[in-house]
Amino acid sequence: MSATSSRAIGGLPAASGALALDTYKLTKRFGAFTAMDSVTMRVEPGTVHALLGENGAGKSTLVKCVAGFQRAEEGSILIDGREQDIANPIVARALGIGMVYQHFTLAPGMTVAENLLLAGGKTPALIDWKTKRAELRAFLATTPFSLDLDVRPSELAAGEKQKLELLKQLYLKPRLLILDEPTSVLTPQEADEVLGHVREFARSGMCTVLIITHKFREVMAYADSVTVLRRGKAVHHCRVADTSPAQLAQAMMGGEQAAASSAPFTRKPVAANAPIGLKVEGLKAQGDRGTLALHDLSLSVRAGEILGVAGVSGNGQRELVEALVGQRPRLAGKVTVMGQPYNAHRAENRELKVRSLPEEPLRNACVGDLSVAENMALRDFDRPPLSRGGVLSFPYWRSRAREWIAEYGVKTQGEGAPIRSLSGGNVQRAVLARELAGDINVLIAANPVFGLDFAAVAEIHSRIVQVREKGGAVLLISEDLDELLELADRIVVMSDGQIVFETPAAGAERHVIGAHMGGGHHESHEHDEPLKAAA
Asked: Is residue 432 part of a domain?
């Protein structure tokens, strides 16, 4: 198959690089549900083509058909003008199609070097490591990233894993590279670096790039053309030069919803005498490898304030959240909520009104096999009215869950469905309903909209802002700087387990924050002392 398909049209040599991709009336059904409805799209060779749309719009289904992971029932896929039956990923690979997924596909127990070689699929029985390592080092020198060849993915932060996924594909020299949300775990500088590199790769004529993204900024800055999918249909195709974020939002949402969702929040300033809701002093905690992940970290958040914590994935943010919510032991330091000592016990959570929206809610905030109603009751199942005289009142659990499902727009087959059967956005909505019920003094939110669609993002953001408006102190940890600039009153940067920079969000400059996120430690330590004093 690859011998004939790799000969380009017009007798050009086989390794001529970038492929042209066309889909014609591509349709994919799952039972009665049509995930992709007669999608026709043209991706020009040597271009970066963005695929925009909400969750469930059909973006992943479309690229999975092109990459051979799913087969469409109707329509056809053309590579360089020739129809191809891409029956499986092996056929796609032979055609020169590579894909980087949003979910990691690395072998955790193998080193970076071994993962890169494994990607090639033709590993010899005996490997000449000296030669191979020299080859891999030479390859890494041609990319914008450096990763330690001896590190295992289990020791890498999410951002580093994402880079390794991309490196795996670049190592194979694809002629069509598909990227599924590639920057959701990168800093602005890294995202610009990755997308800049990918765009150069396309412009050199070596490769065509198809990128799924939620971020208009990335589309406007790096793509040549864009296709918008809505409810399985391709509703809008244009050159990026001929469009605007507002037009793209309208195409994605279909009508008036777009204007409401993209309206910025207007916020009154935080009162200078507002009480301190959350105070962290000299916090130390170990990382998973036994080294110190948090070094004397101090910060404070006032009532009615959102403090944004920026940083590259893997600089202690996860450990900070886990140490605050009781998932990780604290080696030293003090945490207080409204002036009271806080050790993250269940009784303290209730008395001091502390809530959290953790990263990966299905893993960190839910019991997958329990129903939606049972998960919604995890905070207060043993309190009246959910429990009376030690007897659990299941009808009340269910009726309250139905109210919350309606209020938060949770799409589920019912309150009795296991929570693991819900999509990511709907799991997050269900967790939000539970965590945002009642009065809140402190809300700790970690990457609360990771991987969610446009509508869910707008809704969750407005809910977080409502906590602030009602006088709650919000600690918002996010790897998306756009999110922090939009929501936070103040932003601090975490690098290497410490706070290295602080700035009011109004007037903050992306590149300055990005430089500190990148960890110029030698230049940023001058900020440490005044910060500790301020905290």
From this structure: no
* Cα–Cα distance, 138 to 337 (Å, whole number): 52
- Whichever domain contains 29, its CATH number is 3.40.50.300
Going by their DSSP bridges, the two strands 354-357 and 305-310 should be labelled as unpaired
* Rounded Cα distance, 111 and 91, in Å: 27
The helix/strand/coil state of 26 is strand
Closest listed residue to residue 402, CA positions, set 392, 387, 414, 385: 414
Asked whether the whole model's pTM tops 0.70, one would answer no
Burial of 438 (0-12, 13-18, 19+ CB in 10 A): exposed
Residue 7 pLDDT more than 80?
no
In the predicted model, is pLDDT for residue 5 greater than 80?
no
Helices marked H in 377-471: 394-408, 424-435, 454-469
In one-letter notation, the amino acid at residue 254 is: G
Contacting residues for 71 by C-beta, under 8 A, at least 6 apart: 28, 65, 86, 87
In a domain, 58, yes or no: yes
Q: Phi, psi (5° rounding) for residue 172?
A: -85, 0
Contact indicator for 419, 366 with CB cutoff of 8 Å: yes
Q: Which domain holds residue 187?
A: 17-107+174-261
**What does the pLDDT look like over 252-307, one tens digit per residue?**
776 544 444 445 667 788 988 999 999 999 999 998 878 899 999 999 999 999 99
Element (H, E) at 355: strand 354-357
Residue 250 CA to chain centroid, in angstroms?
23
Residue 89 belongs to some domain of the structure: yes
Q: Could you tell me the two tokens for 60?
A: 């992943």
Mean pLDDT in residue range 33-52: 93
d(CA 484, CA 486): 5
* Longest alpha-carbon distance in the chain: 83
How far is 186 from 205, CA to CA, in rounded Å? Answer: 26
Retrieve residue 498's tokens.
Answer: 């410490």
Q: What is the pLDDT of residue 297?
A: 96
How many structural domains is the chain composed of? 1
Would you say residue 57 lies in a domain? Answer: yes
In single-letter form, the type of residue at position 507 comes to G
Q: Output 230-236 pairs: Cβ under 8 A, ≥24 positions apart.
A: 230/53, 230/54, 230/57, 230/254, 231/37, 231/56, 231/57, 231/58, 232/34, 232/35, 232/36, 232/37, 232/39, 232/57, 232/58, 232/61, 233/37, 233/38, 233/39, 233/58, 234/39, 234/40, 234/41
